[in-house]
Design brief:
Blueprint: H1 4-9, H2 17-34, H3 40-49, H4 52-65, H5 70-94, H6 119-136, H7 141-150, H8 154-174, H9 180-200
Length: about 200
Amino acid sequence: MGSPSKTATLSSPPFLHPLISLDATVSHFLHTLFKPILPTFLLHLLEYSADFRFSFPVSLSLFLASHSFSSISNPLILGLLLDLALIGLIKLTFRRARPHYNPNMSPAVHADNFSFPSGHASRVLFLATLFHLILLNDVGLVSDFIQRWIKFEPSFVLFGIWIWAIMTATSRVLLGRHFLFDVLAGAFVGVLEGIVAFHFLRF
């Protein structure tokens, strides 16, 4: 196996080599440092919870359950599809290899073979941003639903969503699936998608 810095700098523009090498070195350090400490099952649980094959059916079920949730389900479904297409396009454009220590991964589609940016990070930050904006501008439907069926204050639920999103994004580096810059780029894309979905995909 090659070193993380060597693996990361293959096929990249020369002026980016120092930055990519630093990214690979820091990412490998974090993975090595936390691997003996954090339970692997927790990292895998976070991974599965943010998988498109889980989040999309859930959002589709919300849409089919009641048209009264259309102001939530429409931007949720369309935003998830936007995220899938955009992240796939970026991955196929940059074609950055995943870390060489990436364990036992079975890509669902060809684009999943590539590392930049992290689709899980973009997805969870999209969800957190969208729900944050919906709750901030809520007319009562979402808050009433949360208080009636989840039995928690909406602000507490929102806090939990952000914690889940940050933990899931961070776990991509700790699990060895991505480099740190992949996750940061994915998170940035996800926040932008959440803003776009809230302002332009609600109907």
